[in-house]
Design brief:
By secondary structure, the chain is of the alpha/beta class. The chain contains 17 helices and 17 strands. Strands 5-6-7-8-9-12-13-14-15-16-17 form an eleven-stranded parallel beta sheet, with no helix packed on it. Strands 1-2-3-4 form a four-stranded parallel beta sheet. Residues 10-59 form the F-box domain.
């Protein structure tokens, strides 16, 4: 009869619980060790394949397409893949190319983190296949530099990329020359990020030495900048900008907007979402003031669409850097056709009277403009061109205010969202098309911003 000691030795890997096997595998960080242990038994081979979520592909893996198909077939839960062709020569065989990236996108559905280093056979056409990775949230910064060398890209959107901060796109270099649209949203840089001061710029001036004269559409969302640093520089470099959107771009000041306005006379659309911050010492307000509005009014005769939304402000001035006088000046100076005001607590019935004189205003959206009353609606009824009106969270308005506008018989569409004192009965017949709801996107966005702050990812 065998002793207990002999019985213990007879236990094989096949007899171990799967959870224990998983713990053993997780404690082996080296790829060579993982490859070796997978040869010990068929069960270990299977468990290791299920747990492996990262692979590295370097020089010498050829043909790449077959290798990728094989690896993805075995490791079905890959979340992170790195391609690094540093030191590559033709003797190593073919690199990853556009076709390989297309194949890769179809067989690795769980990919979240992709690093492409020294991948010189992928161009902007191949980059389009990245859209097929539905879960991708991180892309290596080095890719932007290599993509920029091609210099043929016309549109670049960087969104939810955890490893790309606002300095990464500056390495795009000559790629900016033909770029017409650029969006940078919700990437690595947190709102609490602090720069090391002017020393951060030392030795890095070359990264700002690029031309973006073709850029027409620019969106910057949730970045924190300082003077002369980061993507803020685009506002001073653009010469042909037509559409600008700044969503909580903290650190953008009047000087940036003034220079942008003076350099871009063809600006047609501007969308600003602002929240108070410390400006000029202990003053707590939005960083842009009437000086920005004045520059737009004087230098942008083509401006037709304006959105100004304020979050985190209270009715007391000066948390909103724009005054009603400044807003009216801009509206009266430019051929505004589409206007959205959100959280503009300092905009009241007197401002509405000025709006009623805007000759070109066709569409107006008011969200949480609490100082506007029925008297403001009475002024608006005389607006010569207004045909589309949206009111959300405007609790200073009642059925009487809607009736004032409805009697003018000019509106083609009227949208009412969560205005507590306006009833469904009152809006019937006030326009050719009426939309009435107890909920509205503006309300959800306002609640999310109040609870989570302006870095809430629901733009």
């Amino acid at each position: 009869m065998r002793s207990p000691k002999h019985l213990g030795c007879a236990i094989s890997m096949e007899d171990l619980p799967e959870a224990l096997l998983g713990e053993i595998i997780k404690r082996l960080p080296m790829t060579s060790d993982l490859n070796s242990i997978s040869l010990v038994s068929k069960r270990l081979y299977t468990v290791e394949a299920e747990l492996r979520d990262t692979i590295y592909v370097g020089c010498g893996v050829s043909p790449v397409t077959l290798a990728l198909a094989s690896q993805c077939s075995r490791f079905r839960n890959l979340c992170k893949v790195e391609f690094n062709y540093s030191g590559w020569t033709p003797n190593h065989g073919m690199q990853l190319d556009n076709q390989d990236l297309r194949v890769f996108s179809s067989c690795c559905p769980s990919l979240m983190d992709l690093t492409l280093s020294f991948c010189s056979y992928i161009d902007d056409f191949g980059l389009g296949f990245l859209a097929c990775f539905k879960k991708l949230i991180s892309l290596s910064v080095e890719w932007l530099e290599h993509l920029g060398k091609n210099g043929s890209l016309e549109e670049l959107v960087v969104e939810n990329c955890e490893k790309i901060d606002q300095f990464g796109p500056l390495a795009f270099g000559s790629g900016w020359m033909k770029l017409q649209k650029f969006e940078f949203r919700d990437c690595y840089l947190p709102l609490t990020f602090k720069f090391d001061g002017p020393s951060h710029m030392a030795g890095n001036q070359s990264r700002y030495d690029f031309c973006c004269d073709c850029l027409k559409d620019l969106t910057l969302a949730r970045i924190t900048t300082e003077a002369e640093i980061g993507l803020c520089c685009l506002l001073r470099k653009c010469k042909a900008l037509e559409n600008l959107s700044l969503y909580y771009a903290l650190g953008v000041h009047d000087n940036d907007m003034i220079m942008l306005a003076q350099n871009n006379r063809n600006l047609r659309s501007i969308s600003l979402m602002l929240t108070p911050q410390h400006c000029e010492g202990y003053v707590y307000r939005t960083s842009l003031t009437d000086d920005s509005l004045k520059a737009l009014a004087l230098s942008c005769p083509m401006l037709q669409s304006i959105e100004l939304t304020f979050f985190g402000c209270v009715p007391e001035y000066p948390e909103i850097g724009f005054t009603q006088k400044g807003l009216v000046m801009l509206i009266q100076s430019c051929p505004i056709r589409d206007l959205t005001l959100g959280g503009a607590d300092n905009f009241n019935d007197k401002g509405m009277k000025a709006l009623s004189c805007a000759q070109f205003l066709e569409s107006l959206k008011l969200v949480r403009c609490i100082a506007i009353t029925n008297a403001g609606m009475r002024h608006l009824a005389r607006s010569p061109s207004l045909i589309n009106l949206t009111l959300e969270l405007c609790d200073g308005l009642t059925d009487r205010g809607v009736a004032e506008v409805g009697r003018a018989r000019k509106l083609e569409s009227l949208t009412i969202g969560k205005c507590s004192r306006i009833s469904l009965e009152a809006v019937q017949g006030a326009a050719k098309t009426v939309h009435y709801t107890d909920d509205c996107p503006g309300y959800r966005e306002w609640v999310n911003c109040c609870v989570y702050g302006p870095d809430y990812p629901a733009l």
